[in-house]
Amino acid sequence: MEEALTGYLLATAGLTALVDNRVNWNARPQASATPSVVLTRVGGTPDYTMAGASGLVASRIQIDAWGKTFASAIGVSRAVKTALSGVATTVSGVRLQGSFIESERQSYEQGSGGEWFHRVSLDFIIWHNQEI
To answer: What is the pLDDT of residue 132?
Structure first.
């Protein structure tokens, strides 16, 4: 699912116009340019029916939009919301069944090099087929 979600976001013109190819999992590379996007899978729950596993998983994905300015961070977060809200598609054989925003937070944080960055964090629940 991680590769499919990355591929989907990188194929979204409105987002890549802002971040180019700066979409990473779990951490923003040290000294990397902004604006950028960092995705983290913070949880996942397999779906079951009375007959057993349905083959679907509901994954909670935290998507952080980073920017040197508030305008750049919020602009990237809006592009992510436009790209993912309600999406249902198949990417590289992975079926993204539905994507729903659950929450949004904003912060201003100091990086390891002493620079300050704006961050907008979005939590999505993304239903997808379970990969084996």
So the answer is: 55
Q: Up-side HSE of residue 47: CA atoms within 13 Å toward CB?
A: 13
Separation of CA 54 from chain center: 24
**Which of these, 35, 99, 115, 10, lies nearest to 61 by C-alpha position?**
99
3-state helix, strand, coil in the chain (%, to 5): 25, 50, 25
d(C-alpha 97, C-alpha 34), whole Å: 30
Distance between CA atoms of residues 132 and 105, nearest Å = 33
How many angstroms separate the CA atoms of 56 and 69, rounded?
38
> Residue range 36-55: average pLDDT?
89
| Residue 84 confidence (pLDDT) | 96
pLDDT at 55: 75
Specify burial of residue 67 (Cβ count, 10 A radius: 0-12, 13-18, 19+).
Answer: buried
| pLDDT at residue 112, as a whole number | 79
